[in-house]
Amino acid sequence: MAEADPSRSPEASAATALPSSGEAAAPARRPWGRWALMLVVPLALALGAWFYWQSLAGKVTTDNAYIKQDMISVSAEVGGAIAEVLVKDGDDVRAGALLFRIDPEPFRLQIAEANAAIAGAQVNVIALRNDADLTGTDIAAARSDVGFAEARFERVRALRDKGFSTKADFEAAEQAVIQARERVRQAEDRQREARARLASGPAVPGVNPQVAAAEARRANAQLSLRRTEVRAPSAGRIAQADRLQVGQQVVPNLPVLTLVRDGSTYIEANFKETDLDEMAVGQRAEIRFDAYPDLVLKGRVASIGAGTGAEFSVLPAQNATGNWVKVTQRVPVRIAIEGTSPRRLIAGLSTKVTVFTGENR
């Protein structure tokens, strides 16, 4: 019967309704736990923010940075067809290494032509030295004619004084003297002219001008022949050599390949203008590379740009209009790399640069 069931007795119902002593104490502790949680979480966030701010203090970072290397545009100083190519893209070359050769045959012919001109000038000099105008033979003959004409003139004048000569004979003898003296003068002029043709000027003393001109043409042809061999101006790595093809015509002073010079690697980091307040030359820098995640190099601030990137662009921004919007400018900062990198640094690779501005300058 229901009245005899112990679970339905009044004592059992009262025992079920009353909580235990441990359960009665639990609600008293819950408000303190909530208060502790509400205090600990903001404190942890504040401490985390403070440590993060401390980690940023004394340094500035930018990922707008790239590897730069000095690049030399190699060109030929003479024109002609390419006869031989000795390099290809990616080759490492030493200073003075032969890169390519231009057909030398036209310049060898120029040297032969200059040698012939020198020989002709030398023969001309010998002929001038043996010319009668220079030796004075014509002058001696002309002076002899002057003596003969003067003697005849004296005889004719004496006969005229005695009445044995006509006026016509006298004038003819006088005219013969004048002509003989003129021939002497002309012979002396020709001798001075011959000496002038053999003379050397102050620019090339002791050398006939014709010979000097021919020798200059030969020296120029020899220089052009040497320039048919195009050599590396410095040690480095070859780039864009695919433009070199045997038989291709080369235009003087037009770049045909590029040489990336060894030992010229640096970082160009573009920092915001607001990051430059405490930056100075000589401060330590840390460099990381997108291509080599495990590579970290040390560096130093080598120089701070004299102008922003916008100032040196091809078309600088014009802010004199009503549509002007203030934009934070970036200034190029050159970072010199310290030590030698274990990996090859390729021009143009992206980097991340951190400059420690809080250290002593």
Give a quick precis of the structure.
This protein is α+β, with helices and mostly antiparallel strands.
Tell me what you see in this structure.
The model is unreliable at 1-26 (pLDDT under 50). Strands 1-10-13-12-11-14 form a six-stranded antiparallel barrel. It has a four-stranded antiparallel beta sheet with strand order 2-9-7-4, with no helix packed on it. Strands 6-5-3-8 form a four-stranded antiparallel beta sheet, with no helix packed on it. It has three domains: 58-70 and 262-355, Efflux pump adaptor protein, beta barrel domain (Elongation Factor Tu (Ef-tu), domain 3); 76-103 and 228-254, RNA polymerase II/Efflux pump adaptor protein, barrel-sandwich hybrid domain (OB fold (Dihydrolipoamide Acetyltransferase, E2P)); 106-224. Helix 3 packs antiparallel against helix 7 and helix 5 (137-161) packs antiparallel against helix 6 (167-198). Strand 11 (284-289) and strand 12 (296-304) form a beta hairpin. It has helices at residues 10-17, 21-56, 105-129, 132-135, 137-161, 167-198, 209-226, and strands at 60-68, 71-74, 80-85, 92-93, 98-102, 229-231, 236-239, 249-250, 257-261, 266-272, 284-289, 296-304, 330-337, 350-355. The radius of gyration is 51 Å and the shape is elongated. It is α+β, with helices and mostly antiparallel strands and 361 residues long. 41% of the residues lie in helices and 21% in strands.
